[in-house]
Specification:
The protein is α+β, with helices and mostly antiparallel strands and 204 residues long. It has 2 domains: 2-90, Aminopeptidase (3-Layer(aba) Sandwich), CATH 3.40.630; 106-192, SCP2 sterol-binding domain (Nonspecific Lipid-transfer Protein, Chain A, 2-Layer Sandwich). 19% of the residues lie in helices and 28% in strands. The chain is built from 5 helices and 10 strands. The strands form 2 sheets. It has a 5-stranded mixed sheet, covered by helices on one side. A 5-stranded mixed sheet has the order 8-7-6-9-10.
Amino acid sequence: MKVDKPYIDRKFFYVMKRKGKPLVYVIFTDIRHDPAAILNVDECAWTCRDGFEAILGFLARFEADYGTIKLKLPKGIDLLRIIESPNAYDIEKEPSQSFMIRVINAKKLLEMIRKPADCDFTIRISDELIAENNATYRVRADGVRSCKKAKADMELNVRTLGQMAVGCLNLDEAMLRKDVTVNGNEDMLMRVFVEKNIFVSEEF
């Protein structure tokens, strides 16, 4: 255990090993201004199912000392679907947006994202800050090129493009936003912009 300024920061770092190899790590903050006290897990990671169970078992040891234990999990991991607990109804969930993304070069992004072998769609991007991103592109598996006169299968803001590219926003959700218009080729767009688990947990 490593403690930096324990009486000021009240932040604690734990690494658990099995046979000399790291199994999990946990970083948590002891928040004492609350009457019941809060154990806030700032960051954690595990290498296997046993590691995940080790984290839950480790945190359970503090149940008597804290009124609330807060654990951040990546999108796509629902604790209520995994654990067996007689106190499951005591678990509360809330969304947390802990990171930002900004597309600097839209063409380069479209070249880099994973695409199916038969990929072929057009996309019109608007960007109020970077003029070079304001363009219509034809995106194929073998490359991306600008095509000014082509009708776009999808029109969207660069902010939404970033969210869809990393997988935190799927096409069904995007189509409900005012800054997104889908004109066609929906099946292909669904295959390109797939939802993914987001493992970024750093605060900003």
